[in-house]
Amino acid sequence: MSSRLRVRRSVRTTRTVVLTGLLLAGTALAPMASATPTPLYKNSHASVTSRVNDLMSRMTLDDKLGQMTQAERGAVTPAQSAASKLGSVLSGGGSVPTPNTAVSWADMYDAYQKAATSTGLGIPIIYGVDAVHGDNNLYGATIFPQNIGIGAAHDPKLTEQIGRATAEEMSATGVDEDFAPCLCVARDDRWGRTYESYGEVPGNAVANSTIINGLQGKSLDAPGSVMATAKHFIGDGGTTNGTDQGNTQISDWELRAIHLPPFRAAVQRGVGAVMISYNSINGLKDHGNKYLITDLLKGELGFSGIVISDWNGIDQIDGQSGFTPAEVAQAVNAGLDLFMVPNDSAKFISTLGAEVANGDVPMSRIDDANRRILTKKFQLGLFEHPYADRSFMNTVGSAQHHELARQAARESQVLLKNDGVLPLAKKNNKIFVAGKNANDMGNQAGGWTLTWQGQSGERVIPGTTILDGIKSDAGKGTTVTYDRAGNGIDSSYKVAVAVVGETPYAEGHGDRPNGLQLDAEDLSTIAKLKATGVPVVVVLVSGRVLDVANELPGWNGLVESFLPGSEGAGVADVLYGDYKPTGKLSFTWPASSAQEPINPGDGKTGLFPYGYGLTYGKHRNDEN
Ligand code: GLC
């Protein structure tokens, strides 16, 4: 043995003796190590994959069935949710704690998480809400313009900022998942969810899928991030006659050309979940369509996140109410992972368990679904931080977010006609304002605001009405008079502004198969104003383009405001020219309801084409 080798061995021997001594001393001095080692899945330094594998190895079938089940908060208490090992809880539209405050939401959320993490394997829940234009269930949240107006703004960076602001306000309440964005491509304006669409061509939704980055931030576990849900896969905006939850009769080529690109973009942006649509494709309900969910979404697009059903979506597969064992098996085998069964979680769990036991649903599908769900829970950081991040409380309804909402309202206005009546002179003017939507926060916000359907009401949410903006922006020597019906107007006024359009609705309640005309109240109000000979500017607050071709010649100006949200003052900024209109229609405007559906390239000539929108000249009236 060479001397060098001998030296190395003696050193090694010495080192071994020393190390052994230290270890023994260490052991003798340190307290006894805990008997049971921390399970790998609770080790935040371990890879997500290894944590998922470890956790799944510890789960029973009941654990796994529970993880695939989502119940409504009104149907399960925190204790019941934990006892059933539910993977998720949601608030449907308007399902709110009392009082409806951010602190109350956070307390409610924390109660569900505390129950979930202190039983069994301690798996946290995912809590989901529809925050589709701000955290709109929460009173005091900033309410942004609905998607149809954001589509007209053509400002994807703004959309991302709205996503971030929404996620911050949601984070204060604890909520982990946003059932948004709707990436629907609305092809028939009679559809009640047209306002949830960014536009009638896929490019609008593709461009505004930036909201996913805003919602999800740099990573799902980053402060202020929530998981986004691209919805509704697929074809919801293409149903015959625009019937909500109806049948989309379409070739595979057309489906891929029109309705698929937004979901491809969402997957590329790393969207955490995708919600399946109620509609059918050529007679087969999406919720039971394996080609769509497994082959197209999970296979071709490579989506590795959670596929969630819509509210009781599996009930519709066989066209009968309620769900059957066959429907459960068909939906699970089609590729759905998480089931929104708001009031039937126990029945769903037992039915699915029976379908596994009889071999109709393979364990491989159960495991795939659990793997997807648990992966997102680890990526969300829920095992480390299961409770609401109350450091975001001061973002709820913050001045900064309201300024963003006002900017979004400005950019979403589309000027469609102007004979010189706009912009309004700020100084030495005499303005008459009328119409049911001039002074109504509920009407300018639209559906999915505090409640599922939304509601009319002057001050149902904090913010500024359009009338507030017209009054507060008025300059020296200007008077502003308001009367909803137009009573009191006379020829002494220099201009009249009629703010009319639609009242709130959501989903099928907003379908308008009988046409898109203005209602009798609006027509009467406008007529009263016109009878005095005073120039009339019409501002439409609506969830879609409307049938106004017959009335338009009698109007001096027309602005489509869509549903501007909390900050009606942003609309006034455009009316006064403080912000020159930049909005461009993301929907073809029909010359009559009979033209529906009307879209680019279909050979029909509408009243205004896709992309239309005017602006003001160099000078403003009050500078003339
Ligand atoms: C609704 C909608 C869907 C929403 C879900 C939960 O029916 O179709 O967009 O996310 O139920 O509220």
Structure, described:
This protein is of the alpha/beta class and 624 residues long. The chain has two domains: 60-394, Glycoside hydrolase, family 3, N-terminal domain (TIM Barrel, Alpha-Beta Barrel); 413-595, Glycoside hydrolase family 3 C-terminal domain (Rossmann fold, 3-Layer(aba) Sandwich). It is built from 20 helices and 17 strands. It has helices at residues 3-29, 48-58, 61-67, 78-83, 102-117, 147-153, 156-173, 202-207, 210-216, 252-259, 261-268, 290-300, 325-334, 345-357, 363-379, 399-411, 441-445, 466-472, 520-530, 569-575; strands at residues 69-72, 88-90, 126-129, 177-178, 227-233, 247-248, 273-276, 280-281, 284-285, 306-308, 339-340, 414-418, 430-434, 479-482, 495-501, 536-541, 557-560. The strands form three sheets. The protein has an eight-stranded parallel beta sheet. Helix 6 (147-153) packs across helix 16 (399-411). The longest helix has 27 residues, at 3-29. The chain is globular and about 85 Å long. The protein starts with a helix and ends in a 49-residue tail after the last helix. Mean pLDDT is 95; it is low at 1-31 and 620-624. Alpha-D-glucopyranose binds at residues 92-93, 130, 179, 231, 310-311. The site of alpha-D-glucopyranose has 7 residues, from loops.
Sheet with the most strands: spatial strand order: 10-7-5-4-3-2-1-11
| Radius of gyration (Å) | 28 Å
Number of domains: 2
Q: Which structural class best describes the helix and strand composition? A: alpha/beta
* Overall geometric form: globular
Name of the CATH first level of the largest domain: Alpha Beta
Mean pLDDT, nearest integer?
A: 95
Kindly identify the CATH topology of the largest domain: TIM Barrel
The percent range for helix content is 25-40%
